[in-house]
Every structure is written in structure tokens, then in C-alpha cells.
Design goal:
CATH architecture of the largest domain: Sandwich
Low-confidence stretches: none
Order of helices and strands: EHEEHEHEEEEEEHEEEEEEEH
Distance between the termini: 41 Å
CATH class of the largest domain: Mainly Beta
Mean pLDDT: 92
Oligomer: single chain
CATH topology of the largest domain: Tumour Suppressor Smad4
Radius of gyration: 19 Å
Number of helices: 5
Number of strands: 17
CATH superfamily of the largest domain: Probable inorganic polyphosphate/atp-NAD kinase, domain 2
């Protein structure tokens, strides 16, 4: 099995990379049958973004903190573990952001697309869903659209719902909503097209972030799920991603 071992910039990840290369050898990522990222969830996202044009199956091993998208790090029997692993398809979000100067940027996100205020003043937004204005005015620190895989990341910290993997649902979650104060967000089919407009961009500037790629001073952000593209993630059967999402809902 041809394996590639990209590693995060930590001593633990580099040590693990060296040990795995000695044991299994390595090839370049574009030649690998399976890519084995070594690090945490942040590095896993970086790896997924880096292989977007030439996707390969991904079997990550955790050498970070949480490791939600990764398997336990064990160097022994790696090809056998990969051969027994369960396959999960993750569809990314697409973001199209238009700035105040008229520039248009397109990015994709595995976890979420987030809208943030840039100054001390709250953002003033409106939200369209499939061309219908569902929220004429939302005053908040921000707003995010999360995938099921990303629902346990920033979305959960913002008091958004956990969405089981495989559900045809996206979470629309406000960040510190001021008006309407009691709005807690919405669960929407993954077929919808969101259009978020900044209603006072000069006084209340806003940025948009697709995972970790930021576009500043936006006036309009479109978000939808790309059903034509997916990432193939591999997980040990005893510790798969769907089970992790279920467990997160019972953590006190």
C-alpha cells in the first residue's frame, strides 16, 4: 500500500512521521493510495484543503488535542487497519463572497462558513433561503452555516445543534444574537442556497470565513453544499465519526 504521511509542525507529529516512514516507506501525496495526516483537527482540515483538486482516501491519526476527524495514533498494523476501516463521504460547503469593492471570492469549507463583525459594533444582516427572505434583520456578532461534520466544532461552541453524520441537514446558527434575541437558529435541508447580506457595511463591516480562509469587508455571502464533490475519510470501526457525533450529544 502506497502511503503518504503529511505531518503538523509539532515535535510529536514529526517524530511519528519519521517512525512511520521507517516502517512503511512513503510516496508523494499525489502518488499515494491513502494519505495519513498526523496532527490535530486543524491540520486535518489543512490537508483536506490541500488535496481538493486530487482527492485521495484519508486516514488521519491524532497527534493533536481533540482529534474529532482522526483515528487513534498507533503505528503497528497500519495497512491492516486501513483495509478494515469504514468509509465516510463528506461534502464541503461552497462560499461565494462579494466585497464592498466589487471583488468576488469563492472558497470551500469542510466544517463551516462563518460571518463575523469586524469592529466593536454588532453586524446587521439579512438572510435569504432559496430566494426567500426569512430573516429581514439579524443583529449579532455573527452567523454560521455548519455541515454535520462541522456541527461539533465552532457551531457547538456557539450553542448550535449537533447534526448526526449522514443527515441531509445544514445548521444555521447565530453568534450572540442581539435582535431577535431569542432566535437560536434553524436546521435546513442540505439542498438549500443561503444568501446573507450585510445591510450596513460602511458602519458595521463584516468578514466571511470558510474554515480558515477569511474574506474581509463583504457585502453579500452565498453558501450552499457542493453535492458534486466529496472527501473520502476512513475511520476505525470501533471509533468512527458517526459514533463520535452521537457521543458528543451525551457529554455532560
Amino acid at each position: 500500500m502506497k502511503l503518504s504521511f503529511p505531518a503538523a509542525g509539532t515535535d510529536d507529529a514529526h517524530d511519528a512521521q519519521a517512525a512511520l516512514i521507517r516502517r512503511y516507506g512513503r510516496v508523494a501525496m499525489d502518488e499515494a493510495e491513502v494519505i495519513v495526516p498526523l496532527g490535530g483537527d486543524g491540520f486535518m482540515l489543512e490537508t483536506l484543503h490541500g488535496i481538493a483538486r486530487t482527492p485521495r482516501p484519508i486516514y488521519g491519526m491524532n497527534l493533536g488535542t481533540v482529534g474529532f476527524l482522526l483515528n487513534e495514533y498507533r503505528p503497528a498494523g497500519l495497512p491492516e487497519r486501513i483495509g478494515r476501516a469504514e468509509h465516510v463521504e463528506l461534502h464541503p460547503l461552497r462560499m461565494r463572497a462579494k466585497t464592498a469593492s466589487g471583488e468576488v471570492f469563492e472558497e470551500f469549507a469542510i466544517n463551516e462558513v462563518s460571518i463575523f463583525r469586524e469592529t466593536r459594533q454588532a453586524a446587521r444582516l439579512s438572510v435569504d433561503v432559496d430566494g426567500v427572505c426569512r430573516m429581514p434583520e439579524l443583529v449579532c456578532d455573527g452567523l454560521l452555516v455548519a455541515t454535520p461534520a462541522g456541527s461539533t466544532a465552532y457551531n457547538l461552541s456557539a450553542n448550535g445543534p449537533i447534526v448526526p453524520l449522514g443527515s441531509p441537514i445544514l445548521a444555521l446558527t447565530p453568534i450572540s444574537a442581539f435582535r431577535p434575541r431569542r432566535w437560536r437558529g434553524a436546521l435546513m435541508p442540505n439542498s438549500v442556497h443561503f444568501c446573507i447580506r450585510v445591510t450596513d457595511p460602511a458602519k458595521r463591516p463584516v468578514s466571511a470565513v470558510a474554515d480558515f480562509t477569511e474574506v474581509r469587508d463583504v457585502v453579500e455571502v452565498e453558501v450552499w453544499e457542493d453535492r458534486d464533490f466529496f472527501y473520502e475519510l476512513l475511520f476505525d470501526a470501533e471509533h468512527n465519526l458517526e459514533e463520535r457525533i452521537v457521543k458528543e450529544q451525551f457529554v455532560p
